[in-house]
Amino acid sequence: MKRFLVLLFAISILPAVTLPNSVQASSPTDLKLFDVGSFEKIVKEKDKKDHLVILWSFDCPPCIKELKKVSVLNQQYPEYQLTLINTDGLEEQARVKTLLEKYNLLTLDNWIFSDADEEKLRYDIDARWFGDLPRSYFFPIKGKVKRLRGALTSAELLELFQPTLINK
């Protein structure tokens, strides 16, 4: 039933969903619609800096705690490249924006799952990811991508960006 309602909602706003991602977000405070191919686009569009992508949901209390830590990090180090992807779907768009505003995270690169087929979107991100949250991906300038499971502590967040701090 839930999938049917999500599909019905998606169909009712179909013109907004079918716009290219570059058109979808008219300002930094808008959520971009995450669909197949979006993750690759996120990774390719980042500057030559370390970059952290965090996936989160309202159904995940550790995710909300992690967002609070990210908020503090973002205020201290606004030059960090952070991307947040909400996995709750379009029906939660207003709620997502409210929470991001509360934590002063609206200026980050924010995305929301736009397809009712969550499994397809998760697989497009990482074939080895089955939906456990929180989930993060760290893309260092040098070295391999780090797949991170579970909520990151403040110390772990700072450690990820240690090369950025040193090269400042």
Provide tags for this entry.
single chain; 168 residues; alpha/beta; Glutaredoxin; six-stranded mixed beta sheet; 9 helices; globular; disordered N terminus
Question: What does this protein structure show overall?
Answer:
The chain is of the alpha/beta class and 168 residues long. It has a single domain, classed as Glutaredoxin (3-Layer(aba) Sandwich), CATH 3.40.30. It is 43% helix and 17% strand. It has helices at 2-12, 14-17, 21-24, 38-45, 61-76, 93-102, 118-125, 154-160, 162-166; strands at 32-34, 51-56, 81-86, 109-113, 135-139, 146-149. A 6-stranded mixed beta sheet has the order 1-4-3-2-5-6, sandwiched between helices. Helix 6 links the parallel strand 3 and strand 4. The longest helix has 16 residues, at 61-76. The N and C termini lie far apart (51 Å).
Order of the strands making up the biggest sheet: 1-4-3-2-5-6
Largest sheet: 6 strands, mixed
CATH homology-level superfamily: Glutaredoxin
- Find the CATH topology: Glutaredoxin
Short synopsis of the structure:
The protein has 168 residues and is of the alpha/beta class. Helices cover 43% and strands 17% of the residues. The protein has a single domain, classed as Glutaredoxin.
